[in-house]
Predict the 3D structure of the following.
Amino acid sequence: MQWKEGHDMKKMNVGIIGCGNISDIYMKNCTQFQNISVVACADLNETLAKEKAVKYGIPSVLSVQELFAYPEIEMIINLTPPGIHAEICLKALEHGKHVYTEKPLAVSLEDGEKILEAATKKGLAIGAAPDTFLGAGIQTCQSLIEQGKIGDPVAATALMMKSGPEQWHPNPDFFYQPGGGPLFDMGPYYLTTLIQLLGPIKRVAASAKISFHERTIQSGEKQGETITVNTPTHLSGTLDFEKGPIATMVTSFDVWATNTPFIEIYGSEGTISVPDPNTFGGPVLMKKKNQEEWQEVPLLTGYQHNSRGMGVSDMVSAILDGTPQRASGELAFHVLETMHAFQQSSRLGTHIKLESTCKQAPLLDMKHLFWEKTK
């Protein structure tokens, strides 16, 4: 697999805060995007930051405060744990930097609103993961829907059901605190995909519970330690979309095995089976009415492998060239409000009407890829 160079592009200097597990794929990809120059990284663990800088050819290792103040840096990629997303985003904006953050945008709605307000006041851009909906798999699904291949969408299912991360993650504590759980951890992938394919959400009705109040860590140095669970681990909800479709969504850390699809979109003329929204590729399957068998649909050319960071590159293009910003702060906030609506609906026993909305991002222009994977 090689990286294919395209036409010359303007570049933006970027700094990365947070050098944990997720940083590897960001550093690998962002150091190869044509419109990004990763000039520095920072982490509270300076040794870890130095290791990552050497591994990915990043010129400078700075303290977090130094990175905020570094004049050459125009954008900060925030890869810190969810609990401090808002703090890092707000400080970056205060220092005049654009920000792209890992999901979720923030833990609380109030902090999410503060981030968007601060960005607007400063005239800066906010972007947020996930960007997997820009991959060839989900882009192909969006193209099929826009072409009317399954008629008018009427309904959908989205099912994320598995056992908890204490089975494999060496430091799983944060998954079971507010801002974690299956909804805040994996829900953004599913909700972002649903919004991208069906449009913004109007209201939510849901139930949520903590099935097991303690979890035992199964790997790493903390193996055998017990976690007290402080956030719901099984949530089931109904989503009403502004354009009319109704979706059923379940997220759970309480399921040992399942054979359900990831996401299915049901239209008046057929069904699309959407690939894992935590990935960039396929397969995409479609079955139209009166067809006996599912048909695999060829993927649009482009990003089919782990391309995390392409949302950053797309955001840089939006800032420098005036193109649409797809993984936007408004989209991330709409996802955040939807997740809070799940929990609020369960507490109150009623539908929750969303106050925010967002636009469906246009299809990625495959003629102007920031980088291409070629054989």
